[in-house]
Amino acid sequence: MNDGHNATQPDGVTTARLTVAPVAPGTATLLPLGIDKIRISGGFWGHRQQLNRDAIIPHIARWQERVGWTANFDAVANGTVGHTRSGREFSDSEVYKLLEAMSWEIARTGDEELEQRLQSIVERIASAQQPDGYLNTRFGNADQPSRYSDLEWGHELYCYGHLIQAAVARIRSGHHDRLVEIACKAADHVCDTFGPDGLAGVCGHPEIETALVELYRATGVRRYLRQARVFLDRRGRHSLQDIEFGRSYFQDDIPIADAQVLRGHAVRALYLSAGAVDAAVEADDSPTVEAVERQYQRTLQRRTYLTGGMGSHHQDEAFGDDFELPPDRAYCETCAGVASIMVAWRLLLTTGNLAYADTIERTLYNVVAASPSTEGTAFFYTNPLHQRVAGQPSDPDEVSPRAHAQLRAPWFEVACCPPNVARTLAQLATYVATTNRDGVQLLQYAPGTIHASLEDGQDVRLDVSTRYPDDGEVTVTVVAAPRDRWTLTLRIPSWADGATVEVDGQVSRAQAPSHTVHDAAADSRIVLRLPMEPRWTTADPRIDAVRGTVAVERGPLVLCAESVDLPGGADVQALRIDPKQPPRPVGDGAVAAGVLFVPNGGIEQPYGRLDAYIEDAYDIELPLVPYHRWANRGPSTMRVWIPTR
Amino acid sequence: MNDGHNATQPDGVTTARLTVAPVAPGTATLLPLGIDKIRISGGFWGHRQQLNRDAIIPHIARWQERVGWTANFDAVANGTVGHTRSGREFSDSEVYKLLEAMSWEIARTGDEELEQRLQSIVERIASAQQPDGYLNTRFGNADQPSRYSDLEWGHELYCYGHLIQAAVARIRSGHHDRLVEIACKAADHVCDTFGPDGLAGVCGHPEIETALVELYRATGVRRYLRQARVFLDRRGRHSLQDIEFGRSYFQDDIPIADAQVLRGHAVRALYLSAGAVDAAVEADDSPTVEAVERQYQRTLQRRTYLTGGMGSHHQDEAFGDDFELPPDRAYCETCAGVASIMVAWRLLLTTGNLAYADTIERTLYNVVAASPSTEGTAFFYTNPLHQRVAGQPSDPDEVSPRAHAQLRAPWFEVACCPPNVARTLAQLATYVATTNRDGVQLLQYAPGTIHASLEDGQDVRLDVSTRYPDDGEVTVTVVAAPRDRWTLTLRIPSWADGATVEVDGQVSRAQAPSHTVHDAAADSRIVLRLPMEPRWTTADPRIDAVRGTVAVERGPLVLCAESVDLPGGADVQALRIDPKQPPRPVGDGAVAAGVLFVPNGGIEQPYGRLDAYIEDAYDIELPLVPYHRWANRGPSTMRVWIPTR
């Protein structure tokens, strides 16, 4: 066994190594807190963490067995994989993503039975690893293409990346087990093979970069960081073959620091950005951080949907051009939402800009939360903002052959989204708060407890009570506070005009992006009140596809109209809204707005002089539901952006 | 040599057999005229026919040699094709489409040198045909997959279809040569292999159906018609495997007559519709004609762009849902335009509804004419109505790997569009006029001559003089007329409010779809005046993607704004038009309209309260050019639909 990493000198990342969180930079403006320090006790996200444990993780494990992706590892061990392998070339990574989800879930709850299930999968993976560390069920075994013979599409390094992220979760939660050994051995093999003097390639799907940096942070082994930098430096220099979609598809068109905006395959672009920030932070390379931040900011301003979703093209699962954001053809892959959160989180930690927590919140509520069904046994893969034709219900026993926007499906031929949702939900607590020299920053509002040790060793303990986002009131009780000066910073979302903070009865106005309370004593009671009236939202006029429409939002939630709420189940085409009449809440997170209802009429010609088109229209009250709940009541047509009268 | 077709009794399709035109039904409401009967002498289309002969056809022949697609046939003959073959699985068909274009061009002009070039390609193809008639360079030869082992994607029957269409062109223009022998032998092989008791399959790409019906019409051999019907009856009954895009991609989801609208891959859907009409016409099966007409009408009303372009999806080159017509992601493959003309023409002939000639005109001027460059050496493959980012100029020596909307490219990995344009231009005269028992119908306005023999043997000879579409005046001189009662019907386009027809000095108002002149004597002078003032066009409000915009049209031409005409080459995003001020012609087919010019401003957030967004705007006069000319002045951004103020 060649670990290597114990032979290398750890170099000052002690804090990072011990933080029970997926991202723990050596240096940062804001430091993450581990999921052992933050507990979500219920509410919107607590409910979903429970669902993740009870339904989502078991569902994924069951399907991975059923479709044979876990058994691929057994087949490598017994030499039959060349003839029996099932799944796409990257299916190993789905098993690893599940292991990461399980690892965080075990760290969160100490679930012994889950620990045993994890170990049993790990044993099967271990049996498939080759003596030099190589590990893949699709390449390099008998009757298979040789190792690294298809870096464009083979995904071998991408798979290692997810394996390593799972191992990091284990290390950070205090385990140094077989999974960690496998991952370190694979990482050493990668360094041996793709080092500066080795094979001068990169992976067609970035992911190994962020994983290697985190493995360095978790183990202190510098060669992992160096290898991440080697991959990042090689990117954009045409080491990959050109493909039909162009080299921008896998960001091999121009070097990372030279790009102006994210482009190509959305998940690839975002994973690469995450890795680039990670490596730059460790090298104190602020120009690269700034370059990625500039690209991500422009992407948020010009290539991001109202939901936080990213990716306008189905063909290549890619970003479109600036302002090309069709709601009906929004691809908005769930994984791109997960990946956008990864980037926003890294930029938040390194820059200290709390506005990134707005992006995380928007994406969590309107992309990640939209994916699983109420039962946690079916998932959205794409997240369009307009569904023109009601989808076909999925057979709960069938693999969905397509990533089309239909109803949620139990499983997909490409099934990255379910385990990506699972690992995000399991690690969710880390996104709730950060700490720095001065105090604690409360970023996401969920009921629970937070425990931070400030730099001088003094403890802050907070108790948070809220029904957010059903309600805008968040009560923070200071259970323990430092004797010295300290700060409690509350994120104020950009939409929260008129927010107030009450500290022990004293009310102040609070403005985005944050409000800071100084030196709150133990037993202080701080009440943040965010305005939760539904509001109209309009889009930049350069987003052509939603010209002449408005959306309704309430707090962090994007709302939508569904045909099941319209007279006779009419199509959502049939609406013209009057944005002068404010929408009003009607309970349970729903909202109603007055609209002109225009039953579909027939026309002869689609183009011409159509001023007289609207007829037989009448006023109705239009119910709107949170977007994340759409399609929970059977097939429907749906739209977020409603035409104005 | 097993022709078979001489052994069978021709059965009353004599007229059809002799018509020098691609479509010649046995029975029809309107009968086509051959390209020997109609001569386009110049003008918009005459210029393009000349370009086709001088540049487009030679360019295509050169590239097909260069990329080795013609040489694939030689490689079959010498047994090396399994190792040397180049091109996609359907590249044989591109050679056949070129042969069809050459055949019509030879029929049009009697070009002897072109005849020799055609024969030399035909000889090479002949050498690749197997003794039983099988002919394909991708399957069925040594070291290749076996015949018909991949009906979903193999395109073998599709290739025969194009071979047969080329042979029909030869038969109809009086040649019974090697090409005809090859095609009939292949057709006989298809009937032998896929007959009622044979292999129960259909081709993943329809095309063989329409080709077999026309071969029946040209030869009188009924088994070809029967085999077409067998394929059409099998379609929609899941004989093909399901694929990622679903069976609707190749219209194998439901039987033809049961569909409500065209769906799936646009070219496939349209070729199938053409074949279904052809077969139904020969069987006097009016329910099937009516079903296809209903589907095509709904497609025109809900799934067709202003240009006549069809297909909203890049991913599967497919129709979108009803009203899903994004201008920026319009795929609008040039071939789908060609295919739509094929369907409209067949429906026009069988129903006699001249409004289909409006559709043909719109598609010819705004899709087909847009494809070739001014020099005839580069082509558009897709035809978007909004270009957000200026394209990269194509290297004239490079094969374009993608069907992306960039600038016109010299060649494509999938190069169906150039030869499809070439065959359409070569056969264009047939679409100009039809005849029936009563007289002649003038459908497209181009300078030239028309000669029709009415049923009683009396001749009509017309001389047409016009600068259309630069000008709306069309002068028809009756050179020869029957002594008895007869009619000359002029198509009045649906946009032509206020059209007039002057007969020997007497002016009448004329209304769409047609105006009929009775019993015009020889030497009569008939002047049609179509209003050519530029006009605003709005879209059905259910086409979400162009809400709040207008387009400008002039006669049959759709106009567009290009960034090269804006101050400082600004992006076409920067426009807000006032549809109360009429646009005005400025010569050379161009138009100008007053717009508010809004130089791009920076914004922080793309969503929010943006009422105050427009600033620093000023009025300019916006030049608009015919869409078919766009991108002729270098890279530009472009839009057809202009936002209103």
Automatic annotation (TrEMBL), chains A, B:
<dbReference type="InterPro" id="IPR049174">
    <property type="entry name" value="Beta-AFase-like"/>
</dbReference>
<feature type="domain" description="Non-reducing end beta-L-arabinofuranosidase-like GH127 C-terminal">
    <location>
        <begin position="534"/>
        <end position="643"/>
    </location>
</feature>
<dbReference type="InterPro" id="IPR049046">
    <property type="entry name" value="Beta-AFase-like_GH127_middle"/>
</dbReference>
<dbReference type="Pfam" id="PF20737">
    <property type="entry name" value="Glyco_hydro127C"/>
</dbReference>
<protein>
    <submittedName>
        <fullName>Glycoside hydrolase family 127 protein</fullName>
    </submittedName>
</protein>
<dbReference type="InterPro" id="IPR008928">
    <property type="entry name" value="6-hairpin_glycosidase_sf"/>
</dbReference>
<dbReference type="GO" id="GO:0016787">
    <property type="term" value="F:hydrolase activity"/>
</dbReference>
<feature type="domain" description="Non-reducing end beta-L-arabinofuranosidase-like GH127 middle">
    <location>
        <begin position="440"/>
        <end position="512"/>
    </location>
</feature>
<dbReference type="Pfam" id="PF07944">
    <property type="entry name" value="Beta-AFase-like_GH127_cat"/>
</dbReference>
<feature type="domain" description="Non-reducing end beta-L-arabinofuranosidase-like GH127 catalytic">
    <location>
        <begin position="38"/>
        <end position="429"/>
    </location>
</feature>
<dbReference type="Pfam" id="PF20736">
    <property type="entry name" value="Glyco_hydro127M"/>
</dbReference>
<dbReference type="InterPro" id="IPR049049">
    <property type="entry name" value="Beta-AFase-like_GH127_C"/>
</dbReference>
<keyword id="KW-0378">Hydrolase</keyword>
<dbReference type="InterPro" id="IPR012878">
    <property type="entry name" value="Beta-AFase-like_GH127_cat"/>
</dbReference>
